[in-house]
Design a protein that fits this description.
about 350 residues, alpha/beta, eight-stranded parallel β-sheet, 17 helices, about 15% strand, binds hypoxanthine, binds zinc ion
Length: about 350
Amino acid sequence: MRDLIQKMPKVELHLHIEGSLEPDLMFTLADRNNITIPYTSVEEIQRAYQFTDLQSFLDIYYTGAQVLQTEQDFYDLTWAYLEKARAQNIRHTEIFFDPETHTDHGVPFDVVIHGIRQALVDAEATLNISSNLILCFLRHKSEDLSSAWQTLEAALPYKDWIIAVGLDSSEVGHPPERFVDVFDKARAEGFLTVAHAGEEGPPAYVWQALDLLKVKRIDHGVRSEEDPALVKRLRNDQIPLTVCPLSNTKLHVFKHMQEHNLKRLLDAGLCITINSDDPAYFGGYLNENFYAIQEALDLSQTDIIQLAQNGIDAAFLPPERKAALTAELAAVFNTLGQGT
Ligand code: HPA
Ligand code: ZN
């Protein structure tokens, strides 16, 4: 099974580039930029990565992100992720970035996006990985939307580089409805929309993301299961959920992987995909997420292939590229998977 997971062509749809910052690179960039971080060793960092909920993670994640200052830093961060992606046979990735995390500390939007973009262009040429970029607004700033509006304004010259806008950070108390005007404007400018919802927040937030923000995918969405009418809606409209198993257990959305509801949601006919969220913080990249959920829930080969196919189907890609990836997946299944 691990052989199949490793070798199958995969798509990743929920990956925060700032969440791929490994401790080694954090130290290198802190040194390079003369920034003090509250750790002296990799072991100390790893001890700090014991989270109790989403907020306890975000506090550490925003501190880590402050070592990112220059275009080269953003390039190095993104390139390191893409090399991991190549090693894991990820063929297409849709990457979130949080501009406000950087602009709030004086790093210009242009610096952030140019560094990330150059790595994506190079990866397409030399690592054979295609990609899209998704700009996320920080929802914990929902009291004062001027930051979100400024961020959208800054993104307009880069429309060709950014496929969609999303919503992340502290969920509870920051409902999607507060961002409806910003998202209306983003859609009018041609961006697709996604949103984190139903990770820690209630099903009502998922409804709002669907009905008010008109999202094409829900990021996480695991709490949707609490509302049968919502499950029906997600199934009927085949709205993908970008589920992140290791994130969910690290942040105590589920206490144990065996309690994860992914298999029930899959069996209910929802378009479930597997993703790594913040791999440097949650103990694994995409393959490790597949291994962990497969083993905990005893998923079959059919389930695994379905999850990989859902990733392809849910991507913001033209039909020809989806067809090519589907054919690659079928070829791997035919040589490795069939009959066992
Ligand atoms: N949820 C909300 N905000 C985030 C996450 C997440 O899983 N990762 C990075 N920012
Ligand atoms: Zn996320």
